[in-house]
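A protein record in our archive is deliberately plain, so that people and models can read it alike. The tokens are whole numbers drawn from a learned vocabulary of local backbone shapes. For reference, a complete record is included directly beneath this paragraph.
>
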Amino acid sequence: MLLQQLRPTPGSLPWIWQEQQTHLANIVLNDSVLLTLGSVDGTDVDLYYDATDLQIDVNSGGIQVTAGNIAFGTAVRPADYVSVGRPTETVAGGNDESILNVFSAGALTLNTDAVSIVAGLRVGTPNITEGTGTVTTAASIYVSGAPTEGDNNYSLFVDAGLVRFDNSLFINELLNANMAIGLTINQGANDDQILALKSSDVGTGLTTIVLGGDVEIDDFFTIAKASATLGGAHIQVLAQSTLATPLIVDSWGGAPATTDTSASLAAMNFFVGLHDNSNADVDMATDSNAIAWGEINASNARLTRMLLKADDGELHLQNTTIADLAADSQDDRMVVRAMQKLSAEDIIETQHDNPFFDHQWLVDQHLAGPKDEEGFFLFPLQPRLVFHEGAIWQNYLDIQNLKEKLELAESKLLALEAA
């Protein structure tokens, strides 16, 4: 049967073709007139144009393409089973635009059985079998690049919700043989930050004065290489000038060891090592510096105030000029005695002790800090050393004076014996 420009009348009964027909001209269906594939019993497929879009209503089953390639908005690409490409067009804007939008138009209701995973988009493996050819890189999802026309451009943008990775994450790296599950970042030949932690409610005002690379005012923790070609790590903790405690490190664990040997470890441990660049360790030379503490002054220079030697544990402290102590006007030995009495138990007092030198006097002289609720206090080391040294000197002077008196007395006794 030959149909020329077939135009069904709306509201009329459907035409049913029960045998193959050949048509040499267009079949025109009016808007919203169905082209039904299958039985007209609710288990068929209806195709129609609703004056805006082509509608495909699959009443039962689904749509299956068993062979060939499919293309939407672009030419068929033999290398792609499904190609989606937006043709050239101009839009007025005002709405978000996307080439492929996957979303749930209706709610999914679960009644009886549990469902392990419900996803908006599920991607499996490409199921590759290598024959005579090989595959250099295979991926379930591959993003070839990012746009460049926006104010902010991303290859992947997760705008909300949690992001979960159940395996290792590699950034600019192919493999890490020493990691089962974790994060590996390869910075390449770049020498700037490899990690930066920021906060939108932090504004340190710091940008260029910090030692090392520049920072941004919302940075509060950064990590970079200590040397561009030799490695190491430069860690920066950044805070506003009103925060007096910018870094706090807490270590929680079991009961620490109580031994006091060169092999003893503690709840928090810091060690330095020397190697030969060939995977072998080497003993450090005499007087090698292990750990240094100090300040960065207003000239942006690092000044060491305390230094610990690696080979023998020798501790070096900066010499301190103590101008406001009463070291020259007091009996330094009585001050040392007062410090001893406050730092030790069961001290037996003698008639030579002076109660004037009490804890408050030591606080006033910056030799001790205030006591806490348990009676403990801190004390500065250098001022104490000054008084110990002064006490030793005063003992020397007394001994010399006594020696002179003994020599004078001895000479007088010899003179009396001679007379």
About this structure: The two ends are 167 Å apart (CA to CA). Residues 381-418 form the longest helix (38 residues). The chain has three helices and 15 strands. The CA atoms of residues 308 and 314 lie 6 Å apart.
